[in-house]
Amino acid sequence: MSGSGGNPGGRGGGQGNSGHGRGKGGPRDNSRRNAQGRERNRGPQRSFTDNAPSQRTRRADPARLVAFEVLRAVAAEDAYANLVLPARIRHHGLDKRDAGFATELTYGALRGQGTYDAILARCVDRPLDQLDPAILDALRIGAHQLLAMRVPAHAALDQTVGLARAVIGAGPSALINAVLRKVAAHTLEEWLDKLVAGETDATKIAALRYAHPEWIVRAMRQSLVAHGRSADEINNLLEADNAAPVVNLVALPGLGNLDEALEHGATPGGLVQGSALSSGGDLGRFSSVREGTTRVQDVGSQLVARAMAAVDLGQPAGGTGDGRAEAWLDLCAGPGGKAALLGALAKQQGATLLANEPAPHRAKLVSQALSAVPAETWQVRTGDGRELGSEKPGSFDRVLVDVPCSGLGALRRRPESRWRRSPKDLADLGPLQRELLASALAAVRPGGVVAYVTCSPHPAETTAVVADALRKREDLELLDAGAALDAVSLPGKLDAGHESTAQLWPHVHGTDAMFLALIHKKA
């Protein structure tokens, strides 16, 4: 777990002086009262870290309030931070600086939750699950400020207690003050050393140091080996998961451009043409983003969509041997990012796209994503993708099946996912992934190609699913997915290798951990 480990400041432990000047039953100090009986000034002003909660800030700083509200939505409503955060930033009218602070505080507290909870457990006199969940979220926000942000300790304490008083109540403020003062007594590295002292299990040590559940550490190590990499890369991979992701932009080919974004500080993407890297902020200020012709999309997702669209099927560009236009299918299209890019590429190549999504509300998002693409190019179907293979057998030249998966490859963008997922998810998703791939293989015509994609590197969701499909049919062959990715990336920049399947990595390629298999149905 990365972090600068801010200045601990203040004194460790205890709740601090209450400021009342006397204990119960103690003698009254009349020397401190004036003729009217009011208490005189007590002398030198105490520091913020020594102030009692009742003397701290009583209001909620808007940026910290946004972070608190997002953490509450994630915990209480099973919400996704990346969807809730922009709406809360707009609701509270944060400027660019405060929005950046709120974003780092939100994602940092969520990302480091497991490690922060281990630290907090040493500072609270009861099991954490006995704390009110809102209090625990406030403590996590305070811990991240104290240990991993350049926030002075007195400010972190003052503002976190003020937040608690404003939105939780005055009662918990003494507890929060006491616990966070104990947290502030050590830097992050000192706390990590305490947590792993005497531990010999490398998995447990990595889980604490890099804030991942132990099962994910084991799964990622297994995934590295399964895809031909060294298990020694595990710490680099976990560290990359904890790095704040850069916003990736894509201009829909033939429709959008990045001029406005580049004029306002974005930089050209280093892996694929038509992409850019943005420092964030309110992207809605760009007209092309509002129009939908420029979109936020991880470069790994851009690459796999472009790779499928660029496979040479041995027929005239944009058409088939019988003169008809190519038909493409996005079998699992929601929420529509890859569908929008495929729609633009289909328009350029004279093809058409059917985007399928089973959930009506997500199908609506797909339609919105595709709205920037000329309507004659695409159609959205709301229905079970597992039925399309039998409904439309052999109807499509290119099929993208980006199956529902554990999302282990996008933990840096969805930091709460690491604490929500469990090994059971892998077992539960396996049958669905196989059924969707079987449907895609039935829907593609002989001579066509299916792109099997996951945002997970786990072999149970990637190579094992593909191997099962190949064993069941004799008319399938794998194309060189690594070469296909290299072909659509900027020359010499990606180096995905020449393998029958391809796996991208955050610590190697700077992308989400996208997996791609290109399966050709023999003519």
TrEMBL record:
InterPro entries: MeTrfase_RsmB-F_NOP2_cat, MeTrfase_RsmB-F_NOP2_dom, NusB-like_sf, NusB_RsmB_TIM44, RCMT, RsmB/NOL1/NOP2-like_CS, SAM-dependent_MTases_sf. CDD domains: AdoMet_MTases (cd02440). Residues 1-20 have a biased composition (Gly residues). S-adenosyl-L-methionine binds at C332, A333, G334, P335, G336, G337, K338, E357, D384, D402. Residues 1-60 are annotated as: Disordered. Keywords: Methyltransferase, RNA-binding, S-adenosyl-L-methionine, Transferase. The active site is at C455 (nucleophile). Pfam families: Methyltr_RsmB-F, NusB. It comes from the Bacteria. The keyword Phosphoprotein does not apply. This is rRNA cytosine-C5-methyltransferase.
